[in-house]
From TrEMBL:
GO cellular component labels: cytosol
Name of protein: NADPH-dependent FMN reductase-like domain-containing protein
InterPro entries for the chain: Flavoprotein-like_sf, FMN_Rdtase-like_dom, NAD(P)H-dep_reductase
GO MF term set: FMN binding; oxidoreductase activity
Lineage of origin: Bacteria, Pseudomonadati, Bacteroidota, Cytophagia, Cytophagales
Database matches in SUPFAM superfamilies: Flavoproteins (SSF52218)
Domain NADPH-dependent FMN reductase-like: 6-143
One protein family per Pfam: FMN_red
Length: 178
């Protein structure tokens, strides 16, 4: 049996009952046979980016975040859109990695799940291209109207979105095998 690929899922929302977290939870279940997905749940604990602190000894939270990215075979970023952009906490987290190569050549699945999400989805792809992650059109996924796709318990009940999720997982696995 092949070893499962280790994926780090970074959630752009800090909300406890985030639709983005619900989606990643569904993806964990749907891909359990091929991926070992861990969720980075400390995005709100990262200090505000400060280039003066981005040295060989960055803040402990930053060093731990970078280490998790380095140790992963690939990453998922699943984020909402706030005011036609990425949430500040996600942008902050990525900024702490710009001076490093932790994202370079790392396979990435980029998901924007929001009410609309178009502008944030564009921005996420541009930023992740800039930090040199590897993704394809099939490993990017814009989900509009995300809240209506889950029931009150946080279970994905929208059939089309379930199908899209399985296609996304398959495409990401193909990217990982390159």
């Amino acid at each position: 049996m092949a070893t499962k690929k280790k994926i780090l899922a970074i959630i752009g929302s800090t909300r406890a009952r985030s639709s983005n977290l619900f989606l990643v939870t569904e993806m964990i279940k749907a891909s359990a046979d091929i991926f070992d997905i861990s969720v980075y749940d400390s995005i709100s604990k990262l200090p505000h980016f400060n280039p003066d602190l981005d040295t060989t000894s960055p803040p402990q939270e930053v060093a731990a975040f970078r280490k998790q990215i380095m140790e992963a075979d690939g990453i998922f970023i699943c984020t909402p859109e706030y005011v036609f952009s990425l949430p500040g906490s996600l942008k902050n987290a990525i900024e702490w990695c710009v001076s490093t190569t932790v994202f370079s050549k790392k396979p990435a699945g980029l998901i924007t799940a929001s009410a609309s999400g178009e502008k944030a989805h564009e921005e996420l792809q541009l930023i992740m291209q800039t930090v040199e992650t590897v993704f394809t059109a099939d490993t990017t996924w814009l989900i509009q109207g995300i809240k209506g796709k889950f029931n009150a318990e946080g279970i994905l009940v929208h059939q089309e979105t379930q199908s899209q999720m399985h296609a996304f997982i398959k495409a990401f696995n193909t990217l990982m095998e390159r």
